[in-house]
Backbone:
């Protein structure tokens, strides 16, 4: 009995200790950078932040790039308009611009608190930069923070040297008592003195001060003086007695004391290259360095470039949703303090997101723009306009754009800046503390982003610098020479039908999973035929919930068509029937995730969040905004989703259908923050997904996607739920269909399902304004228990109920866009508050009036909440 | 030149109001009658934002209201916004019905009596203006100046003579803004000695009675007569204690009780009055542990009695069940209420920026609104129409206006088609136009298949039209037991009328068949061999009807066996499960959620616990029964359940709610019978006399409680242990 209990205790101890051992030893080396050999230190260069001297670094037919050797500021001069784009930060109520503020490094300290290093204060002012001129450009390397924090005073002194130094201080007129308080006579030479210390301490001293074991020496313990200022102060003391570097080197010879772990030391480099169209800005990843205890989270770039005082007139183009316009000085600067922030491609599901309280469209294009109309009160001709348009070319998946408006109280100017979040952090409650308490510790992502951060700035002028011009410019960048459709097409529509869903039923209180067929394959074919007959000319059917357990399907190793709605035969018949009546058929699957209700993938295949739990995409509860268990799905690792995709496509071939719809493509990019070699950055996931979609396109598939992030556009033939309105952030002025202007004439796109958007007249107007196709989500059968399933959002989808509504809304929008659908939008403008005009290539203009009052001006009369078509 | 300025002004005025048409940034939902939420179409969309700080007055100067407190729309179409500027000076901003600038009131004139007896007219300013009310009869304006006496201005000394305390006042003005009356320095013997009058909300009824909420005052609403003298306090929020709290109060000292009172939530937060003179008040003070005792909303009649109609599982207090885990945690914090029309009212949740609409029955019609979003954990994103610290709501021209004190703005929200239809149908219902009503409700149902209110009203129309079957179908879908029962009552009548003869015939036939069967069995009895187990089970009949002799025979003469006892125990458990599952909808709406394990545990665990404890107790008290005997005795005593529950189940399926007593009688009878059998059986098994048996049973019960207590303690400890290990593992693996 006694033996048993001892062995039990031993076992527990072993398990616990092995847990400790594994947690400390089993760590895999991250790829975070090692300290470079050389970081520009203090006074590496001349610096004078008041200097106004610029010199030309590069020049071409269109632009001139100027550089300030003292402040590292740049200026780009547009030769045509003579407009000057400068990185100097203008400040409110301050005639002197703030020079040298070219970047900000935001990092966390050991307490998890966020700090910032501004380039002017922490680097340039101290001359910590080096310049390297290149063809058509320049590269500047910066050291930031406490670089080269060097001890210019002795750490150790022999008895004789100590006396010598004391005398020198006496000579210089100092009271030398301070020396005795800083230097301690350490004696480790005799066995008696050694007996006073324990072994650990002796070992520690031996490693750091080996001399101490030869004879008694005076030491000061530099670990106690980590603070930069403290060290600088001591350096200055010793300067008073002309203590030289050579002396320092010989005194400190053989000592190894410095622990660099706690030094706030950073390095970064920025490269500018002038091109015919503008400026290429690159931050080479390899040259970003930070101490592992002070990880850099965000890099804010050129905050001065798009910074304007209240006397300037113009606007910012933000990429939120479809794009929005924030006018300078719009009076909204003081609604609240925080600036507007646009996260590129929405929030990564693998970040620890517990709460979501508002829903808005995510940014899908990695762009931003500024249009400067000139000084307020000047003539408002577009000729005088100047613009800068930015495209983020690398590191876009974790870029963010922040913008704010002029406000005296917060001393803010109109400003917009770009930042890259190169490290993600999660705050967690410390052991034994509740979630409420403040004692939290933070965890950084295992490995940081390993590609360059770069973006292109294009300097535009005249008509081109309006947002319409920018849209045209971006379309050219996206599609190259591929010409837009010039002839109008039949009005397009996607009709999504939901077939099999998961329900939970109860048998004497025991839950069991069950299936419910909301639309069987025959109904799909009948509804399609009926819609076709009633005028849906150019229509695609998207069928979701057709295989491997329905909408919430399992992994796609094999394709098992659901038997309830008709089985494989029914599915094939449906495909045939639809092609007979000329309707595109897009079966829909989600290969990035596996639904939790059907299958739990093996732990190797599941991606992880920052706090090491499974990464799960799910809905949020509208009541308390918390995550809930609804439609939750496991995010797969890169290898797993690649395999899932390939398995699916190889089996899907056999159906002979050349269309396919990928559920999350264009909308969801999720990292895998697992602390091992499967770690995948968001950017890597993105490029892996693009590769897969491209391969399907290459195999001849026509692909339907959701959302429509920029890099997929080339491969998608239809984009559903594409944002055609902005996120409507409160500091912006109005939404513009920038995305639609770029894609019009190239791709079919639709917005949210019309029948689920409350049949609001304004939603229809939105579709008309953006020239989008129609999108409906329908089901065939009324299911009275639907509200208690995860599909309670399908509150108005039963076709037989809403038949008329579907037809009426379709007619309304298709009539409006008749003759222009599928052609290029050439311009879009705000005529008045709530009244917009969209002009198509053939000259047809469509006005929409969102207001509840009619609009009348200059011969145009638009009824309240209606549109007006002006055919040329 | 003048023209130019005007143009500039116009542009400025326009530019500070922005209107958009956004897809809403919130997910709308409704609560069903069980208090569960379901997604629903949007009822309102954000329309317009009016910045109260930067709005320009007629001279082109910014108004500068940075801290609005409330909003009031009068019947004549003017909107009054009360609030403070950046120096904490109060003001009343009067807007036209299209929310354009009309007038601003920053102070008032009144006459005071100086110390030397002389009177003097002074220009006074406000302290903090918290609310405005306009009397519909004569258009007089009541302004709540919460702490007017502390306002810092030149007349401070003068004012100090009038009111010595740091207190506020209510100013009544005529239509043309002439001071008519001031209520201040309220003193009365029924008010606490240290009472300070700080009015922050006010309503006036059709008879000129003034109802005021005073800051920090916990005795309800202060009622004043038309002359401004204090009459009484009405409608003090009732505080109910749960039994545990009452127990603690009973054994606490006076000092402890005083401390407890601090947690008593009794202060009203918002008030409104409807056309019929009912006063709606909201109550937002709640603590995490005491919330269940709070009544978030009350509707008071003239006597101060609460006449609010509520549903059992879905109270009209916003989100009553929300989690405490989030940043915006806990149940709704109701700060304002408005009466809309057709007996529809709405409450404002400050915590999560939501507005909930209810109809007269307390059914949730719809909900909208949300707060800022920080879903990336780093930034706060405000979408147009999101609220931060909403303080007041008002209904104007079929729009909902919400004032936000942090964003210093008024947001207006307009109805979507969905909400319009619900309003229209409700109005038709009030006009008794049922045929038109049902049409609209059907349209609502098309827009939202989940709509509880549509289904209920459709059912009610069917009920009225005597189509009880359809009505029952809808009532059942929305789990409305009361109305279902009503419809069923008539439906049953129809059934009886239709099938009575047939039922009688079948009954007669059945009796004949049973008689014949018995005869047949008697004839063949000799051939059958008595089966031992069956005989043992059958012995329970003896126990049931001869509770003194039975147990004796059972244990001393081996008439029963443990196996038979176990079979009885399991079948009784099964019967209890069937009872839970098949009780009629009228009596139990959640019978589908019955859990098989819990139902079995409900019977088996008490029985086994009793057996073990009883054995432990009686073996110390010279009881004669073995554990086997006790087990058998107890199980056999459960038999009445087998006979009475089937009857109860049957009754529950054919009875309506009014006849529920019969049903309860059967269930109670079964329980009583069982307890009696257990007691008598126990007495006989151990061969105790009556007094001894009572004592022994009492001790057994105490022991049982002790065991349960220890089990709970043990479970709690284990749970803590597990949590401890979990957090260690988490921390080790993440560090």
Residues:
């Amino acid at each position: 009995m006694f033996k048993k209990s001892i062995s039990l205790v031993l076992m527990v101890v072993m398990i616990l200790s092995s847990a400790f051992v594994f947690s400390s030893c089993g760590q895999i080396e991250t790829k975070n950078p090692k300290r470079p050999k050389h970081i520009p230190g203090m006074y590496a260069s001349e610096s004078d932040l008041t200097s106004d001297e610029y010199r030309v670094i590069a020049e071409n037919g269109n632009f001139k790039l100027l550089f300030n050797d003292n402040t590292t500021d740049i200026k780009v001069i547009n030769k045509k308009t003579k407009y000057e784009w400068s990185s100097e930060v203008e400040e409110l109520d301050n005639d002197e611009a703030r020079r040298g503020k070219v970047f900000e490094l935001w990092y966390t300290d050991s307490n998890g608190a966020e700090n910032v290093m501004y380039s002017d204060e922490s680097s340039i002012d101290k001359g910590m930069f080096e310049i390297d001129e290149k063809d058509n450009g320049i590269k500047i390397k910066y050291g930031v923070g406490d670089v080269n924090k060097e001890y210019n005073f002795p750490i150790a002194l022999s008895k004789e040297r100590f006396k010598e130094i004391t005398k020198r201080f006496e000579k210089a007129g100092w009271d030398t008592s301070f020396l005795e308080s800083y230097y301690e006579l350490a004696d480790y030479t005799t066995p008696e003195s050694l007996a006073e210390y324990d072994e650990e301490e002796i070992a520690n001293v031996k490693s750091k001060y080996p001399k101490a074991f030869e004879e008694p020496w005076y030491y000061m313990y530099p670990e106690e003086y980590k603070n930069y200022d403290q060290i600088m102060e001591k350096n200055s003391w010793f300067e008073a007695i002309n203590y030289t570097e050579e002396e320092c080197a010989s005194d400190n010879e053989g000592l190894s004391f410095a622990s660099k772990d706690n030094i706030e030391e950073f390095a970064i480099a920025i490269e500018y290259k002038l091109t015919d169209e503008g400026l290429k800005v690159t931050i080479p990843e390899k040259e970003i360095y930070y101490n592992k205890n002070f990880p850099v989270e965000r890099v804010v770039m050129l905050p001065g470039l798009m910074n304007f005082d209240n006397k300037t007139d113009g606007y910012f183009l933000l990429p939120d949703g479809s794009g929005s316009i924030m006018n300078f000085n719009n009076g909204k600067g003081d609604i609240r303090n925080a600036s507007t922030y646009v996260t590129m491609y929405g929030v990564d599901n693998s970040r620890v997101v517990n709460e979501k309280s508002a829903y808005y469209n995510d940014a899908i294009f990695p762009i931003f723009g500024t249009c400067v109309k000139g000084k307020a009160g000047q003539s408002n001709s577009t000729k005088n306009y100047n613009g800068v348009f930015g495209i983020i070319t690398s590191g876009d998946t974790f870029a963010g754009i922040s913008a704010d408006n002029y406000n005296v109280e917060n001393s803010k100017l109109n400003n917009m800046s770009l930042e890259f979040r190169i490290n993600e952090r999660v705050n967690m409650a410390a052991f034994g503390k509740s979630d409420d308490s403040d004692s939290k510790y933070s965890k950084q992502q295992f490995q940081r982003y390993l590609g360059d951060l770069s973006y292109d700035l294009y300097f535009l002028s005249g008509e081109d610098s309006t947002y319409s011009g920018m849209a045209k410019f971006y379309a050219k960048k996206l599609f190259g020479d591929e010409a837009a459709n010039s002839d109008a097409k039949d009005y397009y529509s996607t009709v999504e039908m939901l077939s099999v869903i998961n329900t939970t039923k109860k048998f004497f209180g025991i839950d069991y999973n069950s299936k419910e067929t909301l639309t069987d394959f025959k109904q799909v074919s009948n509804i399609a035929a009926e819609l076709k007959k009633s005028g849906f000319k150019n229509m695609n059917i998207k069928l979701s919930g057709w295989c491997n357990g329905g909408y919430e399907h399992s992994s796609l190793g094999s394709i098992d068509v659901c038997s309830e709605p008709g089985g494989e035969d029914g599915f094939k018949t449906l495909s045939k029937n639809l092609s007979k009546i000329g309707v595109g058929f897009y079966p829909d699957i989600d290969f990035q995730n596996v639904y939790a209700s059907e299958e739990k993938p093996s732990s190797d295949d599941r991606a992880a969040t920052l706090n090491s739990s499974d990464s799960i995409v799910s809905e949020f509860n509208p009541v308390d905004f918390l995550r809930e268990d609804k439609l939750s799905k496991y995010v797969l690792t890169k290898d797993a989703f690649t395999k899932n995709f390939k398995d699916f496509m190889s089996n899907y071939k056999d159906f002979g259908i050349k269309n396919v719809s990928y559920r999350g493509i264009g909308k969801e990019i999720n990292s895998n923050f697992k602390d091992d070699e499967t770690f995948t950055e968001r950017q890597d996931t993105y490029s892996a997904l693009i590769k897969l979609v491209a391969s399907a396109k290459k195999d001849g598939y026509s692909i339907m996607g959701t959302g429509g992030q920029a890099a997929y556009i080339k491969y998608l033939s239809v984009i559903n739920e594409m944002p055609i309105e902005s996120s409507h952030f409160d500091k912006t002025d109005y939404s513009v269909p920038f995305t639609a202007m770029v894609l019009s004439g190239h791709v079919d796109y639709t917005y949210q399902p019309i029948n689920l958007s409350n049949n609001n007249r304004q939603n229809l107007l939105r579709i008309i304004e953006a020239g989008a196709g129609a999108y409906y989500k329908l089901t065939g059968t009324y299911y009275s228990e639907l509200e208690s399933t995860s599909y309670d959002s399908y509150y108005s989808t039963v076709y037989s109920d809403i038949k008329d509504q579907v037809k009426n809304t379709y007619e309304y929008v298709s009539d409006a866009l008749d003759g222009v659908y599928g052609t290029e939008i050439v311009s879009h403008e705000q005529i008045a508050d709530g009244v917009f005009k969209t002009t198509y290539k053939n000259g047809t203009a469509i006005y929409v009036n969102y207001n509840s009052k009619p609009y009348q001006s200059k011969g145009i009369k638009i009824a309240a909440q209606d549109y007006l078509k002006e055919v040329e | 030149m003048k023209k130019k300025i005007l143009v500039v002004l116009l542009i400025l005025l326009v530019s500070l109001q922005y209107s958009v048409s956004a897809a809403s940034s919130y997910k709308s939902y409704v609560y069903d009658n069980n208090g569960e939420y379901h997604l629903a179409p949007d009822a309102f969309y954000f329309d317009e934002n009016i910045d109260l700080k930067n709005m320009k007055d007629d001279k082109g100067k910014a108004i500068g209201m940075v801290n609005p407190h409330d909003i009031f729309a009068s019947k004549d179409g003017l909107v009054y916004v009360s609030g403070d500027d950046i120096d904490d000076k109060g003001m009343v901003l009067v807007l036209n019905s299209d929310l354009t600038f009309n007038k601003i009131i920053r102070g008032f004139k009144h006459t005071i009596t100086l110390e030397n007896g002389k009177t003097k007219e002074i220009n006074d300013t406000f302290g903090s203006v918290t609310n405005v009310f306009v009397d519909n009869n004569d258009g007089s304006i009541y302004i709540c100046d919460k702490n007017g006496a502390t306002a810092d201005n030149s007349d401070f000394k003068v004012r100090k003579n009038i009111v010595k305390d740091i207190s506020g006042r209510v100013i009544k003005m005529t239509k043309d803004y002439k001071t008519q009356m001031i209520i201040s320095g309220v003193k009365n013997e029924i008010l606490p000695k240290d009472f300070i009058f700080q009015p922050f909300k006010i309503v006036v009824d059709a008879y000129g009675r003034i109802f005021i909420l005073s800051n920090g005052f916990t005795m309800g609403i202060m009622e004043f007569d038309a002359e401004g003298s204090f009459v009484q306090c009405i409608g003090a929020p009732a505080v109910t204690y749960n039994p545990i709290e009452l127990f603690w109060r009973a054994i606490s000292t006076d000092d402890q009780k005083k401390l407890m009172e601090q947690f008593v939530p009794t202060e009203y937060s918002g008030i409104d009055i409807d056309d019929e003179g009912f006063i709606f008040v909201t109550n937002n003070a709640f603590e995490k542990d005491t919330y269940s005792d709070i009544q978030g909303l009350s509707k008071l009649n003239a006597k101060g009695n609460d006449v609010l109609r509520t549903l059992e599982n879905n109270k009209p207090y916003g989100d009553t069940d929300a989690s405490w885990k989030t940043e915006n945690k806990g149940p709704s914090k109701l700060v304002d209420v408005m009466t809309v029309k057709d007996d529809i009212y709405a409450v404002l949740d400050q915590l999560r920026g939501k507005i909930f609409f209810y109809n007269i029955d307390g059914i949730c019609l719809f909900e909208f609104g949300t707060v800022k979003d920080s879903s990336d954990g780093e930034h706060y994103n405000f979408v147009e129409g999101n609220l931060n610290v909403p303080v007041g709501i008002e209904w104007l021209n079929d729009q909902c206006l919400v004032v936000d004190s942090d964003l210093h703005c008024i947001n207006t929200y307009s109805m979507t088609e969905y909400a319009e239809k619900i309003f229209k149908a409700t109005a038709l219902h009030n006009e008794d136009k049922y045929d038109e009503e049902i049409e609209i409700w059907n349209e609502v149902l098309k827009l939202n298949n989940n709509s509880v209110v549509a289904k209920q009203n459709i059912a009610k129309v069917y009920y009225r039209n005597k189509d009880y079957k359809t009505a029952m179908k809808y009532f059942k879908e929305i789990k409305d037991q009361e109305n279902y029962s009503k419809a069923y009552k008539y439906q049953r009548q129809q059934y009886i009328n239709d099938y009575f003869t047939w039922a009688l015939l079948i009954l007669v036939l059945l009796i004949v068949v049973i008689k014949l069967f018995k005869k047949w069995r008697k004839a063949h009895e000799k051939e059958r061999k008595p089966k031992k187990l069956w005989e043992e089970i059958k012995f329970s009949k003896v126990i049931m009807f001869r509770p003194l002799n039975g147990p004796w025979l059972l244990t001393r003469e081996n008439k029963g066996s443990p196996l038979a006892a176990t079979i009885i125990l399991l079948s009784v458990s099964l019967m209890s499960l069937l009872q839970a599952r098949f009780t009629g909808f009228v009596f139990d709406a959640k019978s589908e959620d019955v859990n098989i394990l819990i139902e079995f545990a409900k019977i088996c665990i008490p029985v086994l616990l009793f057996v073990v404890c009883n054995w432990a107790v009686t073996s110390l008290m010279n009881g004669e029964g073995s554990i086997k005997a006790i087990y058998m005795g107890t199980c056999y005593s459960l038999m009445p359940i087998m006979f009475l529950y089937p009857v109860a189940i049957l009754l529950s399926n054919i009875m309506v709610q009014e006849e529920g007593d019969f049903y309860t009688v059967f269930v109670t009878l079964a329980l009583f019978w069982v307890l009696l059998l257990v007691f008598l059986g126990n007495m006989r098994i151990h061969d105790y006399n009556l007094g001894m048996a009572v004592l022994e049973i009492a001790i057994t019960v105490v022991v049982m409680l002790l065991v349960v207590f220890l089990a709970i303690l043990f479970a709690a400890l284990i749970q803590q242990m597990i949590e401890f290990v979990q957090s260690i593992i988490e921390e080790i693996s993440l560090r």
